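Design job #97: recover the sequence.
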């Protein structure tokens, strides 16, 4: 793995940790219809979008690294 892959893996782990924290807050909130609940839902949605983007980026970089070695 390259340093860039390491950075992406660290960012991916941080993103997953943030998502777990948000999910825990939502569980504690019990889906009460408060503005904070809607804010958490928005953060969760954005977090999952970022997680998907990071996974795709890491996959592309690894594929490009494999292709350059061949």
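Job complete. Output follows.
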């Amino acid at each position: 793995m390259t340093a860039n892959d390491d950075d992406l893996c660290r960012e991916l782990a941080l993103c997953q940790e943030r998502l777990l924290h948000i999910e825990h807050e939502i569980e504690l909130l019990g889906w009460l219809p408060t503005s904070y609940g809607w804010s958490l839902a928005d953060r969760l949605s954005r977090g999952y979008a970022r997680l998907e983007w990071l996974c795709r980026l890491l996959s592309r970089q690894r594929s490009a690294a494999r292709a350059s070695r061949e």
